[in-house]
Amino acid sequence: MSLNAGVIAVQGDVSEHADAIRQAATAHGETADVTEIRQSGIVPDCDLLCMPGGESTAISRLLQSEEIAPEIQVHVEAGKPVLATCAGLIVAAADAGDDRVENLGLLDVTVERNAFGRQKDSFEAPLSVTGLSEPFPSVFIRAPLISEVGDAEVLAEWDGRPVAVRDGPVVGTSFHPELTPDSRIHGLAFFGD
Ligand code: GLN
User: Fold this and answer.
1) Which of 2, 7, 25, 111 meets the CB 3.0–4.6 Å disulfide criterion with 50?
2) Is the whole-model pTM more than 0.90?
3) 3-state percent helix, strand, coil for the chain, nearest multiple of 5
């Protein structure tokens, strides 16, 4: 039976995440049906969820107004996996230090928006990630800094700063794992390796 995968499709790299989910599922001997989520009522049927990057203020506003936010919280309370990337990480965090972002508190971390610089400071770096045997090519675009880590595991650091974390079923990355053809971060988040 196929897994039901949901990608929050308010904004951001939706099709790239969908491709990476399918690719990771195949690599783990599974198949995944991917649904784009723009309204409430879909998350409860999902086995796994992706929260893409984009603009965290806009994503947060829509998750609240469409009443998707509480459904994501129930999904995590049930122990089902979530991969939250870049702006997704900002929304998933416990605190983003910005009143315009209503944090979901899925990850026990504090983040600082745009702390890795502006659009022109975007960069790609090979990262050692706990659970992956080879470095992962990581693309950072106006990425958030994870400034404080509470009860969460740091999976990767760049320049001595955490850039990937796990808190129970939720994995958050400052970078964009969907922008390379490598689906191992999706594999790690959804299949554990
Ligand atoms: N700078 C964006 C924000 O703060 C995040 C950037 C991204 O998702 N690439 O919401």
Assistant:
1) 7
2) yes
3) 30, 30, 40
What's the CATH code, domain 3-191? 3.40.50.880
Task: Answer whether 11 contacts ligand 1 (Cβ < 6 A).
Answer: no
Residues 73, 91: Cα–Cα separation, whole Å: 12
| pLDDT tens-digit readout, 80-124 | 999 999 999 999 999 999 999 999 999 999 999 998 766 667 889
- Cα(142)–Cα(72) distance, rounded to whole angstroms? 25
Known catalytic residues are 86, 176, 178
Domain residue ranges in the chain: 3-191
> What is the whole-number distance in angstroms between the Cα of residue 14 and the centre of ligand 1?
15
